[in-house]
Specification:
Blueprint lengths: L1 E6 L13 H5 L6 H13 L3 E6 L7 H11 L3 E5 L5 H14 L4 E5 L1 H5 L1 H5 L6 E3 L4 H10 L6 H8 L4 E4 L5 E3 L35 E4 L2 E2 L18 E2 L2 H13 L4 E4 L8 H14 L4 E6 L6 H9 L2 E9 L3 H6 L6 H13 L3 E8 L6 H14 L3 E6 L7 H9 L6 H7 L16 H16 L2 H9 L4 H16 L1
């Protein structure tokens, strides 16, 4: 069978009223989930698989339609996130319009949270739950006509899928166990994408790629929206991680954006990865996401020596009570220590802040903006606190009446491009929060001293162009 996995455009993302400065200007990152699905399916099946990354190829829906008509796949797989659901549906509808017989499979966070709502979409034939490598490949190997009773029986035996039987009833085969040994997964199929085209505003080299070296996060932040990966921390071995890096170097890729929820949970594994990179003398740059309470001076020096150039820290707020309300499990002292030590190790920092969290009013938000400047990160990303589906924060919002109805479920049942994601509006209105969000970005990024420092650190013309473009966007906010 011919299988086409599509990373759809982002033309109708919900919550577009947020500036999302860094996210929009970072460039194009590989669709890592689709790359993992492809590599595992290629290794464990005989299907012909291609990936269409419409974002990096800058394709519109007409271009997608032309690709589908040319390739004419038997199956199309699309990763569904709630924020991109309208684009996912539009892509699936194009597939069905060209050929109703093409089977459409949806997976990803949205499909995992809302499996029944997703399977009931007219353009969807199958849903993949949780981690998709095993379930997706098993489905490919057993897919057939749903009019055939034996085929349905085979599908019922595949854990981790949702489909409709011959009577139109949704069948959920139940969650599949998480993959414990991540080393057994083949490396993402980067060669199926134009891997030389991926870039990042923050990166010092081009092209870039994304990596995952672990899955699952044991922490209990109330706003976390990644339930499909679970709370059990599972990590790849140091050798396996660096083997993938070395393979990428052979492809001309020397910049890595590591997307683990928290790369630094296992201290010894971090040290082992750094030592292995140094032993192999890999000339690479990479960045990670870390918690301020999981780093120390020695680890940071090891990271820098191994080429780690940037660490993303989730700070969120400058008030300890607000941090406690969010379930962060960190202290302000740990925040200040981590940023100071990271700067001493000559590693850049990106600080994430949320404004308008439980217990946070205008005064606290303004203090958080000042705190962001006091920490002196190289970059910041501000967002308005948003209760995502299935999070503790969302349940709290419903209980308190801040959100009156189950709006996420309603959106999943009847998707509309007019939908606006709910914000935590206990103390401030949506308009007030958006005004403070824009103020936060301008107040941080338009400081003359900050602008001069960044321009002095530019190392290439392409990097200068990306940063000037991003800067001009800031002045338009």
């Amino acid at each position: 069978m011919k299988v086409l996995l599509i990373n759809p455009p982002m033309e109708d993302m919900i919550m577009s009223d947020s500036p999302m400065f860094l996210d929009e200007e970072r460039g194009y990152n590989p669709p890592l989930g689709l790359l993992y699905l492809s590599s595992y399916a290629i290794e464990h099946s005989k299907h012909h698989i291609e990936i269409l990354d419409s974002q990096v190829e800058e394709m519109d829906y007409k271009d997608i339609g032309n690709k589908i008509e040319d390739f004419m796949p038997d199956i199309v797989g699309i990763q569904a996130m709630t924020f991109t659901l309208m684009d996912v549906i539009k892509t699936a509808e194009i597939v069905k319009k060209i050929n109703p017989g093409i089977k459409v499979i949806l997976g990803g966070p949205h499909a995992n949270i809302f499996p029944y709502e997703t399977i009931n979409l007219s353009c969807v034939d199958y849903v993949i739950l949780g981690e998709g490598e095993h379930a997706f490949t098993d489905l490919l190997n057993n897919i057939g006509s749903l009019d055939n009773t034996s085929s349905q029986d085979k599908l019922r035996e595949i854990k981790g899928i949702v489909f409709k039987d011959s009577n139109g009833n949704a069948v959920n085969t139940g969650a599949r166990d998480f993959i414990e040994n991540l080393d057994m997964l083949p490396f993402p199929a980067r060669k199926l994408t134009p891997h030389q085209k991926y870039t990042s505003l923050l990166a010092k080299r081009s092209p870039v790629t994304t990596m995952i070296t672990s899955r699952g996060c044991p922490y209990k932040c109330t706003y976390c929206d990644r339930p499909h990966l679970g709370k059990m921390f599972r990590a790849r071995s140091a050798k396996n991680v660096v083997d993938e890096m070395e393979e990428c170097v052979g492809m001309g890729i020397k910049e890595f954006l590591i997307y683990d929820d928290t790369f630094t949970i296992d201290r010894q594994r971090v040290i082992d990865i750094c030592d292995e990179i140094c032993r192999r003398k890999l000339d690479i740059g990479w960045d990670i996401r870390a918690r301020v309470n999981t780093v120390d001076k020695e680890m940071l020096l090891k990271l820098r020596k191994a080429g780690c150039e940037r660490i993303h820290y989730g700070v969120e707020a400058s008030d300890q009570k607000v941090l406690d309300n969010l379930g962060k499990g960190i202290t302000l002292k740990q925040v200040k220590d981590a940023f100071r030590w990271t700067k001493q190790a000559k590693i850049e920092t990106l600080a994430y802040f949320m404004i308008g969290s439980p217990g946070e009013g205008r005064e606290e938000i303004l203090k958080t903006i000042d705190f962001a400047k006091q920490l002196k990160p190289d970059f910041v990303s501000f967002s308005v606190t948003t209760p995502f589906p299935e999070t503790e924060l969302y349940k709290m919002a419903l209980e308190k009446g801040i959100i009156k109805t189950d709006v996420w479920k309603e959106f999943a049942e009847n998707p509309s491009k007019d939908f606006r994601a709910p914000l935590w509006t206990e103390n401030l209105t949506r308009d007030e929060l958006m005004e403070l969000l824009m103020y936060a970005y301008k107040n941080f990024y338009t400081r003359p001293g900050y602008i001069i420092k960044k321009l002095m650190n530019v190392r290439s013309i392409p990097e200068l162009k990306r940063k000037v473009k991003a800067g001009l966007r800031m002045f338009r906010l």
